[in-house]
Amino acid sequence: MFGLFGKKKILKSGLLEGMTDIHCHLLPAVDDGAENKDEALQALRLMESIGVQRLFFTPHVMEELTSNRADFLQERFERFCSEQSTSIELRLAAEYMLDPAFSERRKEGLLTFNGTHVLVETSYLMPPLGFREILFDLQAEGYQPILAHPERYRYMSPEDYDWLFEHGIALQLNLMSLAGTYGPSPLRRAEDLLAKSYYTFIGSDCHRRDVYERSLQHLKVSTAQLKALNLLVENNKRLAQ
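RESULT FIELD:
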């Protein structure tokens, strides 16, 4: 009945119970996410309390973060896992910026979710040179690109989203976009893409516990949106199998 008269709070919807979160920046001291182990553990404790079951660390891999190569991130991930205790199953992937350094990272081998699906992003202001060709090349090499938070890219038009969907590029919704955390424009785009069933996956993109917690406390969704989000959560689980 709540769908007829208003929206339901996400934290009371049961959506996050048993969730696999495929996008976060909580591996300490490797990017603009958690600065240290304590910050990371605070966020993980919150996620535990709301029912998150599995989590992929997806540190930024981009030109300016020269240390963030696959072997370095794997070593930091293994060290973190050996030094902490959480009921959440932790895994490692990465979020690759499609910048001039990406071709080199691709040659080194990409950190993927399951051997094929790889999380990628672009600048918020403009696409990389040869954007569509890069995506085609990844597909030709056997990868399945997942474009992170497409609702946040200011340069994208409705036709761009149509093209991505029609060419099999999976789109990942930032849950916090629906809370208006990034402003009204990403919120409107997220609602529109969700209504069109253009998203395949969902993630928190959590960098800090306080922002994540505040967003979830304010996030309300309609019955139709909750139904669509549940489908994305199920897709996340299958991605991790």
